[in-house]
Design a protein that fits this description.
This protein has about 725 residues and is mostly beta strands. Helix content is about 5%, strand content about 55%.
Length: about 725
């Protein structure tokens, strides 16, 4: 047997003995594949896209977790970049390669391949494509080697439109409506009409848009209406048969920059109570705010409401214009309302012209006036004061077309004034006590308008002096309001003019009963009560007039209302009682009083999804004391709406009224029925809050019959039946 003879080992050095006790050296423990990777990494050049940053963490060479990455934009958030710009990002640290890379998403598109990363900076290359115009949000991610996307930043990005515009928004609107009648039947004694069957079309064109550049903004809006039937056209009252088929209803173009604004087209002007206040017409106007203390505004408008393509600026008729100007001053800008002053001025001239929607005989008039308004409050806003004053010079020039062949006394040019004041005090400021809101406020008012006061463009009742006060209180769920107003006319006390005094008093209270009682049942209703009394009377008979004592007003009117509402799930039950009493006290008419009492019971709710019903019961009784008669009208009404499909509605409305009229010894029975089926649809787009179009067909029938008061079955007249069948629809193209 041959044995293996091991050669005798040579003696080892102390270092070799130490390695033998503790294991092999670190060079022997590193795998050869790791050596190859480290050698390749050290020999490679600095990459273009990623920078290597790796440390040995343990004995197997795994990297230490890198700190979180922060990303910031090198552009300002409010800055508008051109479409060919190259947005750059600043990184809080270099990326750890090959374990990390940047991901970039804009409007749902991955732009990661267009990023160039050099150390702590990344640039988006746009030489191959342009950035999309508009306001966007740039999403930045860190993508790990395990393909995990972690969002690290959301950066606002604004890109200019063509021609350097920063914002372009244009929203057109086109809607076509058809309203027609398929057939109609009238009682035999009614002469037939030539429009028993027709179809009328209405086209509405609208545009709304806005664009901006370098701090300037241009906003526009306009509406045009086209109607197939001549009598329904926009300016038929003014032009009759010459009214255009498609006409301009309104438009406005506004140029804004910071605190400056200039408007052409339809707008409103005026801020004073006794001068033109929110007077609307077509013209030009502007407004400027200097700092936080001064505001200036002015407008030059057409004298009446204007529509149509002609006179686009509203200034082609110099004698039919209204010029306004106003200035506002805030003396304490840090506390708006502490002390504010506004000045107003108006200069107007009107020809005997009417609005495009009416026809009337008018007179020429001119006026020039001014006014001021002062508002002040204490530091706590518990005391608030408003004072106003206006003075107007009015002239009514003679018009031979109105005078004709008669001798007309010319109206003298005169200057008159008007004033008002209001004081509001919070006796108990709005606060919360034991978890309940508490408020006690009182307001006093005064107003006086001189006789014959008039101003062009203002609708003010002249020759009046009014004083009043209101009290408002809130105590938890209970709210109370009380008021009193007194007024009189004939301020100059002319003996030939009738003087009228009016006193009004009102009280109102409302509360949910469940909120007043602890542990109250849920079925307790919300109740409200309102009471109002008005007394109008005259002082004495005017001199040299055709008045008699019975002509002098002396009347007291009272009105009371009680209402209760119960909410049970999706159902609502309500009851309302109203009594109105008129008491005539003038000599010879003391018995000419009447009382009207109305009871109304209503129930409505949703029985199931897509099915709603409501029922109304009412009775109205009117008592005429002078004639010792009582008239009564009973009514029952019901309606139901069913939605069998998502866009299909079926509506049914039924009403039956029974009236007793002792004055003509008859009873009336009126029945109305309406059935409507409608269907919504979309052709190529959807609209928020509705459908693109809707079609309908409607059947309506009324039946009226009169029976004798004695209750005989045979009616006095044959039943009068009328029914119509209508169909139409509408579609919004944009």
């Amino acid at each position: 047997m041959h044995g293996f003879i091991r050669p005798k080992a040579s003696p080892r050095t102390p270092a070799q003995e130490d390695r033998a006790r503790h294991g092999r050296s670190w060079r022997g423990r590193v795998p050869w594949c790791i050596w190859l990777r480290l050698a390749a990494a050290s020999a490679s050049l600095v990459p273009v896209v990623r920078v290597a940053a790796q440390d040995a963490a343990d004995s197997v060479g795994a990297p230490v977790a890198a700190p979180s990455l922060g990303v910031e934009a090198e552009w300002e958030p409010t800055q508008w970049l051109p479409s060919h710009a190259r947005p750059a990002l600043r990184l809080s640290r270099p990326l750890v390669s090959p374990h990390e890379r940047l991901g970039l998403v804009l409007r749902g598109v991955d732009l990661s391949d267009l990023l160039e990363v050099r150390g702590p900076r990344a640039v988006l290359r746009t030489d191959l494509s342009r950035l999309p115009a508009g306001e966007h949000e740039l999403l930045v991610f860190v993508v790990t080697r395990e393909r995990a996307w972690e969002e690290v930043a959301r950066l606002p990005l604004r890109v200019q439109f063509r021609a350097g515009l920063e914002r372009v928004a244009l929203r057109p609107g086109v809607e076509l409506t058809s309203t027609g009648q398929l057939d109609r039947r009238d009682p035999p004694d009614v002469e037939p009409t030539d429009r028993s069957a027709y179809q009328d079309l209405t086209l509405r064109l609208a545009v709304e848009g806005e664009t901006a550049r370098d701090g300037w903004t241009v906003a526009l809006q306009g509406n045009a209406v086209g109607v197939s039937r001549a009598e329904q056209r926009l300016r038929f009252a003014e032009l009759e048969g010459r009214a255009p088929l498609l006409d301009l209803a309104d438009y406005s173009v506004q140029l804004r920059r910071d605190r400056l604004a200039f408007t052409i087209g339809h707008q409103s002007a005026g801020t004073h109570r006794f001068l033109p206040n929110n007077f609307g017409s077509r013209g030009v106007g502007g407004r400027a705010q200097l700092g936080s203390a001064l505001t200036f505004g002015g407008a030059l408008l057409h004298g009446t409401q204007l529509a149509g393509w002609s006179n686009p600026f509203g200034l082609s008729t110099p004698a039919h214009r209204l010029a306004t100007a106003d200035m506002g001053v805030e003396f304490v800008p840090s506390r708006p309302g502490a002390l504010a002053l506004s000045l107003s001025a108006v200069d107007g001239s009107l020809l005997p012209l009417t609005n495009f929607t009416q026809a009337a005989a008018t007179d020429a008039e001119t006026s020039r006036g001014g006014g001021l308004h002062v508002a002040a409050s204490d530091l706590t806003q518990r005391i608030r004061v408003q004072l106003g004053y206006a003075r107007s010079r009015f002239r009514n020039p003679g018009d031979p077309l109105l005078a004709g062949d008669d001798h007309v006394v010319a109206v003298e040019t005169d200057t008159r004034s008007a004033r008002y004041g209001e004081l509001a005090m919070d006796l108990v400021p709005q606060t919360v006590v034991v978890g309940q809101p508490v408020l006690l406020q009182v307001v006093g008012r005064h107003e006086r308008v001189d006789p014959l006061y008039r101003s062009v463009g203002a609708f003010v009742a002249a020759d009046r002096d009014v004083n009043g006060a209101d009290l408002t209180s809130t105590l938890g769920p209970l709210s109370l309001r009380a008021g009193a107003v007194t007024s009189r006319d004939n301020l100059q006390r002319l003996p030939s003019v009738l003087t009228t005094r009016t006193n009004e008093t009102s009280v109102g209270v409302a509360t949910p009963l469940g909120g007043l009682l602890p542990r109250a049942p849920a079925l307790l209703p919300t109740v409200s009560y309102a009471w109002q009394r008005t007394h109008q009377r005259s002082d004495e008979l005017p001199e040299d007039g055709a008045f008699e004592l019975s002509h002098l007003p002396d009347q007291v009117s009272r009105n009371e209302t009680v209402e209760a509402q119960w909410h049970v799930g999706s159902s609502l039950l309500s009851y309302r009682w109203n009594a109105s009493h008129q008491d005539n006290r003038q000599p010879g008419r003391q018995a000419a009083d009447f009382l009207t009492v109305v009871n109304l019971l209503s129930l409505g709710g949703t029985l199931r999804t897509g099915f709603e019903v409501s029922v109304d019961l009412s009775r109205e009784r009117q008592t005429l004391y002078e004639q010792s008669l009582t008239q009564q009208l009973d009514r029952i009404g019901a309606s139901a709406r069913w939605q069998p499909l998502a866009r299909t509605d079926l509506l049914a409305v039924l009403s039956h009224a029974l009236g007793d009229q002792p004055t003509i010894e008859s009873r009336t029975r009126n029945t109305e029925l309406q059935l409507e089926l409608s269907r919504g649809f979309d052709l190529y787009r959807r609209f928020d809050g509705g459908t693109q179009g809707r079609v309908f067909i409607r059947y309506a029938r009324t039946r009226a019959v009169v029976h004798p008061f004695t209750g005989a079955a045979q009616p006095l007249l044959d039943a009068r039946i009328t029914w119509t069948l209508n169909a139409g629809g509408s579609i919004r193209f944009y």
